[in-house]
Amino acid sequence: MYRLFERIAERSAQVLALAGGAVLIAMTAMTVASIVGRSLNRFGLGPVPGDFELIEMGAAFAIFAFLPWCQLKRGHVTVDLFLARFSARVNFAVDILANLLMTVAAAVMLWRLTLGMLDKYAYGETSFILQFPAWWGYAGAMAGAILFALVCAFTVWRSIREFAQASNGANNNEARA
Length: 177
Fold this sequence. Notes:
Layout: H1 2-39, H2 51-72, H3 80-83, H4 88-123, H5 135-176
């Protein structure tokens, strides 16, 4: 069962991170096109209409698209200077606590994004230039936030398994001595 969830989490996080990368590439291309258009204004070209709005929505999606992959691959910043002095079991216990706290943070972000999206939807707020519904940006970010919360919960499970395996290994070593 664990391996199935691991494969699903890995594949989902990978696909979402690649989608976030594709959005960043598209945002870069659009920014270049908008800047070139501005500089060629005298020739009848111009900036991409609503470029700031598109960047805003794309960045929201991309940021949340990368979080599940980062969490799954243990890519968040850690301070190992202090923990290097302790045993592997203590480090595994700290990992459990850190992953629990990250799961709580992810759940709070998801909760607040959901409320923000529902608020934007209820009031029918739109972007200034393109008149896109504002809730679209929230919905894009929520796709990543949902997966981020699920991956965080999975990493708690993973950390508990690693702690149990370290504890069993230590107990086996003590029994052999």
